[in-house]
Amino acid sequence: MQFHNYADLEVGSIWRSAARTLTETELTWSCMTSGDWHAIHADAHASACTLVAQRMFHGTYGVHVAVGLASRLPNIDGIVIAALGFEDWKFLAPLLVNDTVAAEVELVSKRLTRDGKRGVLERRIRLVAESRGTLQEGIFKTLVRLDATTS
After folding, report:
1. Which of 66, 73, 135, 139 has the most Cβ atoms closer than 10 angstroms to its Cβ?
2. Residues 6+ away with beta carbon under 8 Å from 30
3. Which residues of the chain have pLDDT under 50?
């Protein structure tokens, strides 16, 4: 369902994305694009000695995946103006190759801007692994129009 009006969004609503599995290719891509080839990400032998006994994704890759999975939860394409940032993002457990993850999104608050012409949505995004629970979570703020016809 696409929301065309700020007023239609209800605080407390929860949505869940489709799940997807993190791959070996993505871990390599994360190393390549970040330039971070630390042994915990790139060296199978060295990472075998860690607490998780395998290579793990960069923590920030989880943010990347979580925001992507949550990008249309709820579907507010017609009213989005801009991302305003994150608050209180937590890395709770490592992301591993073959984790199947989904995003859970809860609208925790909404408010009008001081001039009353736009709204600010605060959504709690959780990146959840089907087998291990919540891996990361935090608040993502978005600036929105009051309806799809305002600018």
Report:
1. 66
2. 36, 41, 57, 58, 61
3. none
